[in-house]
Specification:
alpha+beta; signal; 8-stranded antiparallel barrel; Protease inhibitor Inh; globular; single chain
């Protein structure tokens, strides 16, 4: 025995199922863009000030930066050589200007809730720097300027 209206329900259920599949597909495709949220300058300052942040690139240690008061920074490729500079917000970018460099280098900093990363504006996401650690300890900068202190 046929249920009343069963023939009418069959087609809408199929159309509804197809619409749900399309919706799920579009939602999944949109997830990476939604999950990757750019930090504002205020968020970046709250995350970084007073810390030394360590970065990996392609799964290997790349460098570290110490973030001091007044947006001052010290960068090292972890080779004992350190470079002083400053950071500033420019639109949705975080830019760095180091001593002896004429131009600022600007980055996007991302926080997806599980990891933080940085990308030079215009670079491929595959080359992102990924935050691998954060410490209250200052950078070690023994050379080549031995005897010069980089502590705040």
């Amino acid at each position: 025995m046929r249920r009343r209206g069963a023939a009418l329900d069959a087609k809408p259920r199929g159309a509804h199922l197809a619409a749900m599949k399309r919706f799920c597909l579009f939602a999944l495709l949109a997830l990476p863009a939604q999950a990757e949220t750019k930090m504002t300058a205020t968020q970046f300052g709250a995350f970084s000030e007073g810390y030394t942040v360590f970065f990996n690139r392609h799964g290997a240690p790349y460098g570290a930066e110490q973030y001091l008061k007044n947006k001052q920074v010290i960068w090292s490729f972890l080779d004992g050589t350190c470079q002083r500079g400053i950071w500033f917000g420019e639109r949705d970018e975080i830019c760095f200007l180091y001593d002896d460099q004429p131009d600022a280098l600007c980055w996007y900093f991302f926080d997806d809730g599980q990891r933080k990363s940085a990308r030079i504006v215009g670079d491929d996401p595959a080359d992102d720097l990924v935050v691998s650690g954060q410490s209250k300890s200052p950078l070690s900068c023994p050379g080549p300027d031995v005897g010069v202190s980089y502590r705040p």
